[in-house]
Amino acid sequence: MSYKSVVVTKRGGPEVLQIIENELREPAAGEVRIKVLATSVGRTDINYRYGYSPFSPKVPFAPGYEIMGVVDAIGPQKHPGGEGVSRFAVGNRVAALTGHGGYTEVIYLGQEHLVPVPPTLAPADAAMVILNYVSAYQMLHRVAKVKTGDKALVIGASGGVGTALLQLGKLAGLKVYGTASSSKHKALTELGAIPIDYHTQDFVEVIRQAEPSGLDFVFDGMGGANGDRGLVVLRRGGKLVGYAAPEGLGSLLLGAIKLAWVNLLPNGKSADFYGITLLYMRDKKPFMEDLPLLFKLLEEGKIKPVIAATYPILEAAKANELLESGQVIGNIALLAPELLSEKKCLKK
């Protein structure tokens, strides 16, 4: 028996994504075999595909930063190294942060990476929460430590993390401004943000007029000069949190130097960089605590991922093409074909 994955065969555009077949095997000791029901297409997938990121996996690899699926098989319960899988059983719904590997029908993961998914949640919604909403939640509550009444700007507010920041920011009682092209302003307004058109408006001037005393926080998902300009609109004691993936080692080093410099300046402003993978590799505990909390908010209807389009997993190349068009508001979901129907599929 076999299963299919979508892999990057060489650096380049969506056309380098190819479908390959893999032999289905039994899971090893401590390992869980998962039938993937949902994953997402994100900006990091694109950066990895082109090789822009210093953390890009070696070719060939399957992109896909997270998965939601159902346990299909578990490794042996007893083995020479000790006990086997103990926390999960066949049929359990699970979620995991993978970094890459999610564009696949089947994935093998150690049980230490898995989080239970409530049975009431739709796979597409659950999958969108794993990366984007955990990232947004941790930036707001673990890095910035926001409080009710704080004022914030989200630079690049229409993407998956951006829309999550808007929803969770509203839930936390923040006043939030967000930059996006004018065609996306209606969506930002519905999410509770005050939109700023980055094509025709200078967000520094808009914020200075609207908030003369400055903002408490700026969340920068675009990088480059945006971070420097974001610092300008902060009040004394305000913080910039950057989360745009670095494009190359040079960009990573320059960003680190800028952060250090900002934090040394005597203006009372500070800056930090958020990267979920680095935090997860250092300590899984915060992720394992925050994802169930967000699943609960999703169950209660307090958050709702914005999903612009859904595609079958094996049509990931088309989904990547759509994301690169720049027309997407929110997320693109890749789903197991049995979850899709013509009515559900919102391909554009």
Structure, described:
- The protein has helices at 43-50, 123-143, 160-171, 185-190, 203-210, 225-232, 249-264, 276-282, 285-299, 316-324, and strands at residues 2-8, 17-23, 31-41, 66-74, 78-79, 82-83, 93-97, 106-110, 115-116, 151-155, 175-180, 194-197, 215-220, 234-242, 270-273, 307-312, 331-335.
- It has 348 residues and is α/β, with parallel strands linked by helices.
- The two termini are 34 Å apart.
- The radius of gyration is 20 Å and the shape is globular.
- It has two domains: 2-128 and 284-339, Quinone Oxidoreductase, Chain A, domain 1; 148-274, NAD(P)-binding Rossmann-like Domain (Rossmann fold, 3-Layer(aba) Sandwich), CATH 3.40.50.720.
Give the overall shape, derived from the CA principal axes: globular
Strand content range: 25-35%
- How large is the radius of gyration? 20 Å
- Main CATH class of the largest domain: Alpha Beta
Q: What is the string of SSEs from the N terminus onward? A: EEEHEEEEEEHEHEHEHEHEHEHHEHE
Largest sheet: 7 strands, mixed
Distance between termini? 34 Å
- DSSP summary, beta strand count: 17
- Number of structural units classed as domains: 2
The chain-level mean pLDDT equals 92
Give the low-pLDDT segments.
342-348
Spell out the CATH superfamily of the largest domain: Medium-chain alcohol dehydrogenases, catalytic domain
Helical stretch count? 10
What's the CATH architecture name of the largest domain? Answer: Alpha-Beta Complex
Could you estimate the helical fraction of the residues in percent? 25-40%
